[in-house]
Amino acid sequence: MSIVSLGAHSLKTLRQSWPPYAGAAVALAGGIALITLATNMLGALGTATDGLDEQTRRQIDDLGSLFGIMAGISLFLALFVVSSTFGFVVATRRRELGLLRLLGATPRQVRTLLLGEALAVAVVGTVAGCLLGTVVTVPVLRVLHQAGVTPVLLAMPSQGTGWAIAACCGVGVALVGARRAGARAGRTQPVEALREAVLERRRPTVAQGLVALTAAAGLVATAWFAPGMPLLFALLVGMFLPIVAVIGANAVGGLLYTELAAYAGAVVARRDPAAHLARDLARTSSRMTAAVAAPVVAIMAVAGSMVVAVGATADWSEGADRAALRSELVVEQAERPERIQGLPGVRVSDVRRTAPVGFGGERTEVEVVDVADAAATRSLQATRGNLADLHGRAIAVTASYVTDLGGRVGQTRRMRIGDRTVKVRLVAVVPDAPNLWGDVIVPDDLPGIGRVVRDTGTVFVRTDPGADVAATARSLRDTGAEVSTGEDWVSTVAAEARDTNTVVLWVMLGPAGVYAAIAAVNAVLIGMSQRRRQTATARLLGATPAQVRRTTLWETVFTGAGALLVGGAVTGFTAWLVRQAVVRDVPDAPLTVPWEALSGITAACLVVLLAAAVAGAYALRGGEAPD
């Protein structure tokens, strides 16, 4: 049989077997829509840097990293959801494929047939996903701006690049997902055409076992090295380790998820016959159980881990700020900060100032300080080098800057200030305190810096010994500025950072949660299409429609309980890992558990499971006893 005739036959069989393939197309379209949206958002950021100030440009650069992570998560979800969906399609067509083998089709011809069908589904799903992603881009960009995530309203970018990337991802995901299913289909024996039932395999293959063991070894190694792991590395591991854990769990999902579902339903099964049957179904229907659990585990593990990692970063930042800040009062929106020094009760007024310069091959905002004032109010001190040398043509950088971009004390670099270039020497490395100073610090007597320096409106104030802090604060407020205590200022900044992080995470992970719901519902609907005869037999034996639907609901509940347990365990491990690095760096860092965000993720997973349960019950609404 030629490739052309196989292609034509693929289209014919696709038209005849469209119900399961419709689910595959929907799953693929959802994933491609997410990738298109993420690509469009990255493209919008790339066109928004012209005419913006340095701070806004840096904020947009940071968003680019977040949107890139969103694109990676979307591709990850699309890959294993589409792969499991195609596996379902092969399972539903077992007898048909066995009949083809009985009529003389070779394993290669069966694989080629399925790949041809997958390619057709890829075209439909990719076009639909690209259109959907394009349609939702503008509303999402508007919501991001209204929520304060983006400093400016981003414009819709050109669709050529985004569609090209999404199309390549769509075809690639579909073919990769169909390849494994095609290999399984190629092993279909002719006798399958004569079988009425088949026992689904729960025991993992050797390759699946190796994948799971590799993932487990990665978790054990991470736990072993956690006590000495630097914070930045721990955060990176905390972002990507959940993906490794999910891949390992899904590799043995046919065994892991079914056993957890059976364990979760053990107590209820003793009291309700429908629950007992649901427990047995969840344990024996390994493909459907794993397909429903996989997206829930992915969302719970990836989203939960990102939430706790970002929350730990906020705890570290707050702890570092509290440890370094020595100012009793912090003044903001000060119009004339130079007047503060002469007010009664004020001992030191440290005006926070920044300046845009060219450094390290790009435009950078540097912190301009009076070293003595910054040491008195913000505990500016050196961990390497000597701050006494921070004067004239000299700079200091933070420890994280050295980790990210390198540098050593004594090194000479070029810095462009205005229209002139000066050589500066790195004289000190200082601790990180993100809200107290920037990554690059220069003295206020650096040649030329006075022409480009600007006040930020924030002044750190140390009061005279024995002065009435409340009276000093009233004097400062009389200048028209906003005044808060140092403790309150740190709390406010930390709360604002956590709120912003929460909004960004919901924007990044919200679409992925919707996609997980679609994937779970899709898996249940395809799975229920294989149970028509089983449902009819149960009705023949006296089961009522309500009992059949209740069995489906219980099965989804047990599966979801096992999935939440796995996802929660991965999230808890990530939280422990990142916390080890935080307290190693800042021993007095507060411990803030993001209960609201974690509860929201759990609620989203429950909604996914509820949608799957309702879909399954709806699919069985017409199950009647056979004549």
TrEMBL record:
Q: What is this protein called?
A: FtsX-like permease family protein
Q: Tell me how this protein sits in the membrane.
A: Multi-pass membrane protein
Q: Which UniProt keywords apply?
A: Cell membrane, Membrane, Transmembrane, Transmembrane helix
Q: What residues form the membrane-spanning segments?
A: 21-46, 66-91, 112-141, 161-178, 205-226, 232-257, 289-312, 503-525, 557-578, 598-620
Q: Where in the cell is it found?
A: Cell membrane
Q: From which domain of life does this come?
A: Bacteria
The UniProt record lists the ABC3 transporter permease C-terminal domain at: 69-175, 515-622
Annotated Gene Ontology cellular component terms: plasma membrane
Q: Which InterPro entries match?
A: ABC3_permease_C, Membrane_comp_ABC_pdt
What is the scientific name of the source organism?
Answer: Nocardioides turkmenicus
The record's section on PANTHER family has:
INNER MEMBRANE PROTEIN, MEMBRANE COMPONENT OF PREDICTED ABC SUPERFAMILY METABOLITE UPTAKE TRANSPORTER
Keyword Transmembrane annotated:
yes
